[in-house]
Design goal:
single chain, 7-stranded mixed sheet, 6 helices, Spore Coat Polysaccharide Biosynthesis Protein SpsA, Chain A, alpha/beta, two-stranded antiparallel ribbon, 9 strands
Length: about 210
């Protein structure tokens, strides 16, 4: 935690899980644990604090003991709205924290060096933002965001109606950090029932990671 600036982690749980027949994707189980439990276990040692971005009844996540922060813009505007909610929350409640890491709650195998590598790359490249990648695919939902940009992000969402993360990050100097996909892709995301079955197989490879 002392090797890089203080970082707040936000777990983005705003999806409707329509490809899984509804319900909260993070509550699906892999290897006896919910995906959300796996994400929390991966990020707790890396973050100074974790919050959960979710809309609707926050009580459904009460057992996890995390602050549940809803979107601060209307209309279920997607991951950027969740990131903005986290930046707003940090500014209001943790003024000493300048950086927020966002992560999807359907990624059960996140790297244990996620924040350290993103922060190092951001500092090395003198970048304003940093995102993760694996193989030849970028994962813009998994990124590092500066709290100072929250006003610009709000304008992009509310006034310009920007929804795609890539469209917004294209305006800034961006550091991209790539992880290998062998023996497993750490950003594998469980979107379908078939993905859950595949995640069960991957979890065996991941036991000692």
């Amino acid at each position: 935690m002392t090797e890089h600036p203080k970082t707040l982690g936000v777990l983005l749980a705003g999806g409707l899980a329509s490809r899984m027949g509804g319900g909260d994707k993070p509550m699906k189980k892999i290897g006896g644990q919910t995906i959300l439990e796996r994400v929390i276990a991966r990020l707790t040692p890396q973050c100074d604090e974790l919050i959960l971005n979710a809309n609707g009844d926050p009580g459904r996540f009460a057992s996890f003991g995390l602050p549940v922060v809803p979107d601060t813009v209307e209309g279920f505007a997607g991951p950027l709205a969740g990131i903005l909610a986290a930046l707003d929350w940090a500014a209001a409640h943790r003024p000493g924290i300048e950086w927020v890491l966002s992560a999807a709650t359907d990624c059960p195998f996140l790297p244990r060096d996620l924040i350290a590598r993103l922060q190092r790359a951001r500092i090395k490249d003198d970048a304003q933002l940093a995102v993760a990648a694996s193989g030849d695919q970028t994962h813009p939902v998994v990124g590092l965001w500066n709290v100072a940009l929250r006003g610009e992000l709000r304008h992009a969402l509310v006034v310009e109606d920007i929804r795609k993360i890539d469209r917004w990050t294209a305006r800034y100097k961006l550091a991209t950090v790539t992880w290998p996909v062998e023996p497993l892709d750490p950003f594998f995301n469980a979107n379908t029932i078939e993905d859950i079955a595949e995640a069960e197989r991957i979890a065996v490879l991941d036991k000692d990671k």
